[in-house]
Amino acid sequence: MELIMRNMFQSLGKNTSANKLAKKYGLRFGAGRFVAGESIKSAIEVVKRLNSEGKVVTLDHLGEFVYTEEEALESSAMCIQTLDAINEAGVNSNLSLKMTSLGLDISKELCMKNMRKILDRAKLYNNFVRIDMEDYAHCQLSIDIYKELRKEYDNVGLVIQAYLFRTEQDINDLNQLNANLRLVKGAYKESPSVAFPEKKDVDENYQKIIKQHLLNGNYTAVATHDETMIEYTKSVVSEHQIPKNQFEFQMLYGICEEIQARLVKEGFKVRVYVPYGVDWFGYFMRRLAERPANVWFVLKNLLK
């Protein structure tokens, strides 16, 4: 049943008609737990609250299904507005983005143009931008663009997914750039020809790349809600005396808040991934697909 539900939500997340309906009817049925509203104003208020709890943030203006240059330019402008709002409010947050929302599927040149505008603005504010990794079809191109951008910018990082067979080699290659990486298990539905189909294999590879990147001496963002992986990371940094300013834990807004609070109390840096915007449906569906507990939360809201 869990597999059926996961596949259903992953398919819904890619459905353009469902996405249009979601935009029309707004954040309802529990999505507000995971998405910080539709406006930058509401997002900044969430960031302020999280900062007051000792957490730092990465804001993501949600955008999927970008098919025209005009839409890509609008998305790029929203990323810049987000950086402006962060600076104006004086909050502790950086920016996460998906390059498909900046026109990657239209042309690499358009995407690069938008990325440079965003990174220039972030550099002006001494801020940092994280490129989210998307599905396997975009993996190599995303890495290639990251490598190209790193020749010009030092305020940009990338996400790497543990469920792909290629990941260990990718981390070896990116070590030459002293890459700042967010390490995740992976949330897209991929073919068993490119990704580990079994959870135990994904978990094993995740531990391997956490240790690999930490011991390479590069900044490591361990993005997980899995307490086993959190404790594993603690054991690695303790055993190898890795300073706390070389890594952080990252978690999603609205998920495992008690673990977030505990890690802050223990003196670890915790960054909360806070998405906002009208284009929230695909993100919300992936969160439901990842964790059955999220589905029950939504069902309870429906019953209410």
Automatic annotation (TrEMBL):
It comes from Neobacillus bataviensis. Residues 44-298 form the Proline dehydrogenase domain. It catalyses: L-proline + a quinone = (S)-1-pyrroline-5-carboxylate + a quinol + H(+). Substrate binds at K98, R286, R287. GO terms for molecular function: nucleotide binding; proline dehydrogenase activity. Pfam families: Pro_dh. GO terms for biological process: L-proline catabolic process to L-glutamate. InterPro entries: FAD-linked_oxidoreductase-like, PRODH_bac_arc, Proline_DH_dom, Proline_oxidase. This is proline dehydrogenase. Keywords: FAD, Flavoprotein, Nucleotide-binding, Oxidoreductase, Proline metabolism. Pathway: Amino-acid degradation; L-proline degradation into L-glutamate; L-glutamate from L-proline: step 1/2. Its EC number is 1.5.5.2. Binds 1 FAD per subunit. FAD binds at M133, Q161, K185, G186, A187, K199, T224, H225. Its cofactor is FAD.
